[in-house]
Amino acid sequence: MQHSDCIFCQIIRGEAPATMLYQDERAVAFRDIAPIAPVHVLIVPRLHIASAAEVTAEHAPLIGHLIAIAAHIARQQGIAERGYRLVTNVGREGGQAIFHLHWHLIGGRQLRGIG
Ligand code: AMP
């Protein structure tokens, strides 16, 4: 199920532009439009799930697949050895702005600890 007013659903359908790095039948990955590091990629399931708070046990294979894609892209982008951050924001106080589940893959510079 996809949502017509969701920007990530629009990107997935090819109706909005994005720099796409990876696509398969279950997920896509594209560059963040406002990167906070040299590598800032969003890993997004095609299925519209609002956030990690909506994830259920039946999504477990999909979530594992998203993490594997992140690891693949990190290797592809040359940051796997150096390390990176993989994070998903949940809800307004969690800093979530787009309510379509996604992981941020952030790296290519030294990141500070969270907090
Ligand atoms: P979050 O705050 O975790 O929901 O993250 C949303 C991210 O999506 C932000 O880092 C935005 O810069 C990014 N973003 C918003 N619109 C687009 C877009 N059209 N293409 C690529 N990235 C986007």
Brief overview:
The chain is α+β, with helices and mostly antiparallel strands. It has one domain: 2-Layer Sandwich (HIT family, subunit A), CATH 3.30.428. Helix content is 20%, strand content 22%.
Describe this structure in words.
With 115 residues, the chain is an alpha+beta fold. The chain has a single domain, classed as HIT family, subunit A (2-Layer Sandwich). Helix content is 20%, strand content 22%. It is built from two helices and five strands; from the N terminus they run αβββαββ. It has a five-stranded antiparallel β-sheet, covered by helices on one side. The longest helix has 17 residues. The protein starts with 6 loop residues before the first helix and ends in an 8-residue tail after the last strand. The model has no long low-confidence stretch (mean pLDDT 97). The chain binds adenosine monophosphate. The site of adenosine monophosphate has 12 residues, from loops.
